[in-house]
């Protein structure tokens, strides 16, 4: 079965909340954390056990102040159409609290720190790379724990903040807040086993059937392996980002991107699990009466190879002149 998405317009969605164009979703609370392998504490003491590791020398953040942290190499600032996600740990109580914050990236701990937060103090952590993150905050004295998951789909053109807050009663609450712009050229999806997901980039509203059928170029990323891989497909036209797709490809799955407008494109395909990348330039000469495709094939090692192929028919000189 083939699913098709046409990216041809920009829209902006607004919520009716008093805060403006924001949507807020409560995150699921987790009553406790997993015990460390050498811990002898009972399950009900797990939250206290996790926080104690980071609590020996808590970082002091004065009332009303903010401490900043960053995770990653700021790769989202270098290319593409996606923005980093911010994590906020805040103290909304009138007295000082000492929560512990643990952030994992694909199961690996990348931040583990406790903070002595005065009233209205906060910690802001910038997640600057596209990945899967788990954010966990604990209050050892109250045996409280709260967990928020940040998925790849939350890295888009919107400003997104995942917050864990200490309330006045000493308990924790969490939320995820994001603006609601329609992100043209941003796709994040899973393509199921042996299926194909097709997207058209640069479709012109009202184009004739001939214009829609001819002078196009296809990009095809195929996973023939028995393993699921996640790929990021970046397209730039004249150095301007025009498409940023993240496709989780199950075995036998295919992602197809159809370029409907002639131009000079730069294509990068990256396998996120291995950081393997290949690059290809797609010139305007490919947009003629011939059928042309840039194919990306994944292998069992998580590497990718790009190849461009085209038919070689002679095209009338003026048929595809600009």
Distance between the termini: 36 Å
**Unreliable residue runs:** 1-55, 208-213
Write down the domain tally: 2
Proportion in β-strands: over 45%
- Work out the helicity level: under 10%
* Tally of contiguous helical segments: 2
Helix and strand run? EEHEEEEEEEEEEEEHEEEEEEEE
What structural class do you assign from the helix and strand content? mainly beta
User: What's the Cα radius of gyration?
Assistant: 24 Å
Largest beta sheet: what is the strand line-up?
Answer: 1-14-18-15-21-22
How many E-type strands? Answer: 22
Mean pLDDT: 83
Specify the overall morphology: elongated
Biased composition (Polar residues): 50-63
Region (Disordered): 18-79
Biased composition (Acidic residues): 33-44
Brief write-up:
The chain has about 325 residues and is mainly beta. The chain is about 5% helix and about 45% strand.
Give a description of the structure.
The chain is mainly beta. It has helices spanning 46-53, 209-213, and strands spanning 2-7, 22-26, 59-61, 66-71, 85-91, 100-105, 108-117, 122-127, 133-139, 144-150, 160-166, 172-179, 186-191, 196-201, 217-222, 229-237, 240-249, 254-259, 265-271, 276-282, 292-298, 304-310. It has two domains: 22-179, no CATH class; 186-310, Immunoglobulin-like. The chain has a six-stranded mixed β-sheet with strand order 1-14-18-15-21-22, with no helix packed on it. The protein has a six-stranded mixed β-sheet with strand order 2-12-11-5-8-4, with no helix packed on it. Strands 3-7-6-9-10 form a five-stranded mixed β-sheet. A hairpin with a 5-residue loop joins strand 21 (292-298) and strand 22. The longest helix is centred in the first third of the chain and has 8 residues, at 46-53. The two termini are 36 Å apart.
């Amino acid at each position: 079965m083939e699913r098709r998405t046409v990216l041809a317009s920009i829209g902006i969605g607004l919520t009716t909340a008093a805060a403006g164009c924001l949507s807020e979703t409560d995150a699921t609370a987790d009553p406790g954390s997993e015990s460390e392998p050498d811990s002898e504490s009972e399950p009900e003491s797990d939250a206290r056990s996790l926080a104690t590791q980071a609590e020996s020398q808590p970082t002091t953040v004065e009332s009303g102040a903010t401490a900043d942290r960053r995770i990653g190499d700021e790769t989202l600032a270098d290319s593409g159409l996606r923005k980093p996600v911010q994590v906020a740990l805040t103290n909304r109580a009138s007295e000082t609290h000492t929560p512990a914050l643990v952030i994992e990236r694909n199961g690996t701990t990348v931040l583990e720190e406790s903070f002595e937060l005065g009233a209205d103090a906060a910690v802001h952590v910038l997640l600057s790379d596209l990945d899967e993150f788990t954010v966990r905050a604990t209050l050892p004295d109250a045996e409280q724990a709260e967990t928020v998951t940040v998925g790849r789909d939350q890295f888009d053109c919107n400003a997104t903040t995942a917050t864990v807050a200490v309330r006045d009663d000493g308990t924790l609450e969490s939320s995820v807040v994001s603006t609601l712009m329609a992100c043209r050229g941003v796709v994040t999806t899973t393509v199921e086993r042996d299926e194909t997901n097709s997207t058209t980039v640069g479709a012109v509203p009202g184009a004739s059937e001939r214009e829609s059928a001819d002078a196009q170029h296809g990009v095809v990323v195929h996973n023939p392996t028995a393993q699921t891989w996640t790929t990021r497909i970046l397209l730039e036209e004249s150095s301007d980002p025009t498409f940023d797709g993240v496709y989780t490809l199950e075995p036998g799955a295919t992602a197809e991107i159809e370029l409907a407008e002639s131009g000079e494109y730069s294509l990068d395909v990256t396998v996120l699990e291995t950081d393997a990348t290949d690059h290809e330039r797609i010139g305007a000469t490919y947009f003629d009466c011939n059928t042309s495709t840039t194919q990306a094939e994944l292998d069992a090692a998580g590497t990718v190879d790009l190849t461009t192929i085209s038919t070689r028919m002679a095209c009338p000189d003026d048929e595809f002149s600009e």
